[in-house]
Design a protein that fits this description.
Elements lengths: L1 E3 L3 H6 L10 H4 L7 H6 L1 E2 L2 E2 L2 E6 L1 E6 L17 H15 L4 E2 L8 H11 L10 H13 L14 H5 L5 E5 H10 L4 E5 L8 E9 L8 H11 L2 H11 L2 E2 L12 H13 L2 E4 L10 H17 L6 H12 L9
Parallel strand pairs: 6-7, 9-11
Antiparallel strand pairs: 1-9, 2-3, 4-9, 4-10, 5-7, 5-8
Helix pairs in contact: 5-6, 5-12, 6-12, 8-11, 12-13
Length: 328
């Protein structure tokens, strides 16, 4: 089976996947798997899922924007406050609202905002802590420089390629598609720094073996093949996902594909959170995403600003999706 982290818990509860704890030397010999991704695939101390590709968020930039970057700032040192100043410089000089944000419902906005809250010292999914409120205030001040068409963007690829926007924070695979279209026109950076560190919400694509697989030996060989460093490198080069095996980077030659992975890895070196699947009966991740989206509309698009009472109410909706809320 190849599946995403949001499916792990229900596959284990349904008894569909096999326990691979005692087979780690078979499925991943002599290689270093991401500890964070491995942990996501563990339930009751048993390893059911073996990671083969991760995803997080990076900055994608049209090189035209570099002329307006604040003095003394680089892509690798950029903070969220620097980003606001940078966007203001562009707007003041050109009248362009240069930032692309994917605003179509149930898209990536939750993870982009969530990553910034981590950078400000918050948790994920946290919308109401003091750290989260500071991050929301940053978005409130950045909002005037978000392109007016943001609510129509499911992905930022098209507005970036049309040069309707010049700067975006987006999923590494989406950023990779833009960058690889013309590395002379676009460049990459890690997600910006907050007051505490960088923050990134990471996803996890993993492999599992069906408990009643008729050809278990072949299934184990397939998992071992997919986690070989050289195969991990090919996956990363093909789809711009983060390798789950540390040694894979040694098989990626210098160039655009390696640039993408290195930018993503810098982001993963900061405060990383994984998507916590709801645990309460009837819990729904879509409800969590709707809270983040509604809060963004309320604070930024409607111009209400940061309202602690409103955010506490929204946090209670998130917490209801869990037996033990992740951010308590």
């Amino acid at each position: 089976l190849i599946t995403y982290v949001s499916n792990f818990k229900r596959l284990v509860e349904a008894g569909v996947v096999a326990d691979l704890t005692d087979l780690m030397d078979v499925v991943a010999p002599n290689r270093t798997l991401s500890a964070g991704f491995l942990k996501q695939g563990q339930f009751d101390g048993k390893q059911y899922f073996i990671p083969f590709a991760g995803d997080d968020y990076v900055l994608i930039v049209n090189r035209k924007a570099l002329d307006y970057m604040p003095a003394g700032v680089s892509l690798n040192t950029l903070t969220y406050e620097d980003l606001i100043a940078w966007l203001k410089n562009i707007y003041d000089a050109t009248g362009m609202k240069a930032f692309a944000l994917p605003g179509v419902r149930m898209g990536l906005l939750t993870y982009i905002v969530g990553s910034s809250i981590l950078a400000y010292g918050g948790c994920f999914p946290d919308v109401s802590s003091e750290a989260a409120q500071a991050a929301w205030d940053m978005w409130y001040r950045l909002y005037p420089y978000i392109n007016d068409n943001w609510v129509t963007y499911k992905m930022v690829n098209d507005p970036m390629l049309r040069e309707e926007t010049w700067i975006a924070i987006t999923h590494v695979a989406r950023a990779g598609m833009v960058y690889l279209s013309d590395p002379t026109k676009f460049t990459l950076g890690p997600v910006p720094l907050g007051p505490v560190d960088r923050g990134s919400v990471a996803g996890n694509n993993s492999l599992a073996m069906a408990k009643y697989a008729p050809h278990k030996d072949l299934a184990l060989k397939f998992i071992e093949f997919m986690t070989r460093p050289e195969i991990q490198a090919k996956i990363a080069q093909g789809v711009s996902f983060n390798p789950a095996v540390a040694e894979a980077v040694n098989f990626i030659p210098p160039g655009p594909a390696r640039d993408i992975i290195e930018a993503a890895n810098i982001g993963m070196s900061g405060r990383v959170a994984f998507i916590p699947g709801p645990t309460a009966e009837g819990g729904d991740w879509g409800v969590v995403k709707q809270v983040f989206e509604d809060a963004f509309y309320y604070i930024c698009a409607r111009g209400k600003g940061v309202d602690p009472q409103y955010l506490e109410l929204q946090q209670s909706i998130i917490d209801q999706q869990y037996i033990e809320p992740p951010c308590k």
